Every structure is written in C-alpha cells, then in structure tokens.
Amino acid sequence: MAHSKIAVNDTLVLFADLQAGIADLPLTVPYPRLQKGVLALSRLAQVLGMPAIVSAVRGQDGGPAVIMPEIAQGLGELPIHYRTSADSFENQAIKQVIEATGRKTILVAGAATEVAVQLPTLSGSDLGYRMFIVVDAVAGISARTEDAALRRIAQAGASTVSIATLSGELAGDFSQPTAQKAVAILFEMVGGE
Fold first, then answer.
1. Among 71, 72, 130, 174, which is most exposed with the fewest C-beta within 10 angstroms?
2. Cβ(51)–Cβ(103) below 8 Å
3. Diameter of the chain by CA atoms?
4. Which helix (H) or strand (E) holds 43?
5. Tens-place pLDDT, residues 153-163
6. Residue 115 has what DSSP assignment?
C-alpha cells in the first residue's frame, strides 16, 4: 500500500559530512543558514525521538573530523562513523547501524548535496529505504550541480522535504507537549532570518 507521509516511528536522520573543511566551504547555502537548519533538524530529532547517525570522512592528514556543533547542541554527542567512500551505504558499519534501527525512512542532511547527500540517497533508494533530502540542512557546490543532484535523486524515487513540513507533519496533535515543542522549533528557525 502506497504511503506518502512520513511516520516518526519509522524515521531516522543521517548527517553526512557536516564537518569543518566541507560544510564551511562557500556552498549554495550561507554557512549560518546551514547551521540554523542543522540545529533545527537535530532538535526535531531529539524532541521526536528519532535516531540519528553522523557519517564523516577523516581530514586529509588522517585526523578526526570536527563535526558541526549544532548536531551535538540538538542531540548531545553522537559517535562519528567514518567512511572512506562518498556513499555512507558503502561502509558496512554504517549500513549495519542503519539496519539495526529497523527504520525504513531516512532524512538526509549534509554537504555537499552532489556527493555525500546524493550518493547514499541513491543507494538507500535502491535498498528499499524511503529517502528524503532535508533541503534546509544541505548545501551544494553550485546551484547548477546541486540542481542536477536533486533531479537525479527525484528520478530515483527519493524526495525533498523542509524542516517546516517535517515539524508540522511529524508533530501530531498540536495540543500535546511534544507537538508544541516541534512547532516551536519551526518558529525559532523561521524567526530572525
């Protein structure tokens, strides 16, 4: 049976390459705006109890990645799952962590859209996951190449979604405290831009 909506109890978040030396490059989204989107998504995951996975690559010197602090601000410190290819699903340990959640819907945030976001989205789609790119929490190399990536993602059956939509869709009954927190995240993100 087809279902278009996202179910919070079937969803996890994949943060890919949101790290110094990648996410802070001159990308299609100004860094402060990307920070705001990543923080909102992190906080939404925490409020709604969605598991989150941080995927990264080591620095050129082999040193550990410096992950955007907004992820920890929203979710607390999470383990970093390192990989040696652009596609998170090509790393067996990351793939196993995703499978272990039992969840079949993945929200993807990261940089760059053309590489660390697009490639696991395509693989996840091929593996039967419902993949959604969170447009407020991704940044691309150029408008043209990011557009090409988003088109290819759509052709593979994945979708895009915004934090505004996620907040409203996953919050549930607005009279409940959890829903009120989720909607508050939306208003905080929108405010001050």
1. 174
2. yes
3. 51
4. helix 31-48
5. 999 999 999 99
6. I
